[in-house]
Amino acid sequence: MNPKLLVRISNVELSNVGQSYRSSRHPINFNRNDNMLDSYIHNCSLHKTFNRAINIHLTNYLSIKHNFIYDIKGSGFVLHDGREIGNTLAHNLAIFVKPSASNEDGTPAAFMVASPNNKINHNSVAGCSHFGFWYRTFDEPLREDESDEISYGYRPNRVQLDEFTGNVVHSVGRYGLWIFPGYTPFNK
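Given the sequence above, the corresponding structure tokens read:
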């Protein structure tokens, strides 16, 4: 746990935020925060964003509950590189998530999850261009740049699914749930 950092965002409305075509310029972006057990994003509304909604990168045990996102360019709720664990995304609503011109978000998901070791429960998705939930796991975690240290031997595509229950998807362009090819978790 990171004893120096505590972030609690609740009952906030954000509109016309995020910078298009700029890496890590998301409306809410937790980047390399380590363990955030007592931190949360609750009861917030994000709409008409230009670069995703909530992006979580190398941050663990964050609670993301009861949020509403609408008219989002790029993916909505993102667990970014495959090393995020223990985060809870529950009772969130995503409506009208659409493509962005960036490579990664040209085929967006309301929920893009790079590590299955997170709790994704009772969320709802409607009217998105591509995917409701996309488990986009890789053989090794994504790297931001050459200085980005990764835990060698950690393979997101072999991690067991933590929780995925009670989620609902309606009227998306491609798949309600898409599990990236190659996801073959080990049994414990």
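The radius of gyration is 15 Å. Try to locate this feature in the token string yourself.
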